[in-house]
Structure of Aspartate aminotransferase family protein:
Amino acid sequence: MSMNSLPELDRDHLIHPVTSFRGHEAAGVRVLRSANGARITDTEGHELVDGFAGLWCVNTGYGQESIVEAATEQLRRLPYATGYFGLGSEPAIRLAASLAERTPGDLDHIYFTLGGSDAVDSALRFIRYFQQARGMPGKDQVISIEKGYHGSSTVGAGLTGLPAFHEGFGVPLDWQHKIPSPYPYRNPVGEDPQAIIDASTRALSDKIAELGAERVAAFFVEPIQGSGGVIVPPKGWLKAMAETCRAHDVLFVADEVITAFGRTGPLFASADEDVIPDLMTVAKGLTSGYVPMGAVFMREHVYATIADGAGSHTVGHGHTYSAHPVSAAVGLEVLRLYEDGLLENGRRMGTRLLDGLQGLAAHPLVGEVRGKGMLAAIELVTDKAARTPLPAAAEPGQRLFDRAWEEGVLLRAFPSGVLGFAPPLCCTEAEIDRIVEITARVLDRTL
Ligand code: PLP
């Protein structure tokens, strides 16, 4: 056992995701020790409300005993089963069937991954295979949206519209293309919903025409852009984008890694927008972050084309831990909890959260309050009329995060000066109110 303290061991050995390595060495780590419901406690005994559900994933909240029991029982009975060799496990099969029953339309075929990045990567591989199988190997270009986030795998990071995920990594960008974000608060066409929808569908049609529809395989989109700063497009936008894709024979892929499983209200945000994507990617809330798991859902026509195209040949895509039985057992219990009152509570608390944050709209630093369900953001500005963003050079993200932490809430502070909120769906009214009160104090301290 090393005599060094946890912060020293962390500094010397643990590489943190999406972090300035040198900045982290200087700042040091905060070590979390335990959590229950929507509360987390660090090793100093500091208790906070988790206003971000970990990393927008612990939708059920922490300490749900029935999830612990489901995982423990599965660990005892069968901790691992491969999906290779035609084998499977009961929880994986039941989870696939339960999800298929609940997804929109015939989005009924499910490949399980370990998280969101490999779900996106798997989707990309299946899409390329699909286009080959239907005799269109040249239909291999993909389009996504600026400020979108689709993970940080070697290929999928190309879809991510945040430059830090490309620069220096050699991400293949030659066949991955972007159109502007709908971003109502900062859209050159203004905030009128129809004008935004028209501008986005035009941008997508124009990009498809520029590349040639016979070369465009798919369009990837988050129903609400999460890591780009919780950007909420107008109602009807997602459907209009899906219809534009259909009109040009381009697969429509909804990346619901954040938005699914009650985060925006229903189980799937696409269903709420009356959209049946050709493929859909999920992770996070699928297992509520208790164990890793993601998934790709495919519509019948996508699955059948791949299956028929391959015939008796192997479709060479797979992971050792695909459909892991412990993750699947957790997924089944998490799904039961969502439908046993958590979605309902999340919807009520989401309204309370957004109403509470709207109450801060008059604050001189608040440019916009936006959100849907238990997903919300405040965009901070230095000049409300001119919508001037906080100066990036001052690194407002870390400062705001630190202040909120000291006051007792974990929230996301994006470098652009956007505060992100995604509390667990189990939050009580008092916890939601505390998030709002502390946010008000953080704003006052930032003036
Ligand atoms: N897609 C979206 C929309 C996400 O928000 C994320 C992660 O935040 C991912 C993909 C990547 O998921 P993971 O971090 O589990 O690899």
Summary: The chain is about 40% helix and 15% strand. Residues 115-117, 120, 149-151, 222, 226-227, 255, 257-258, 283, 294 surround pyridoxal-5'-phosphate (CB under 6 Å).
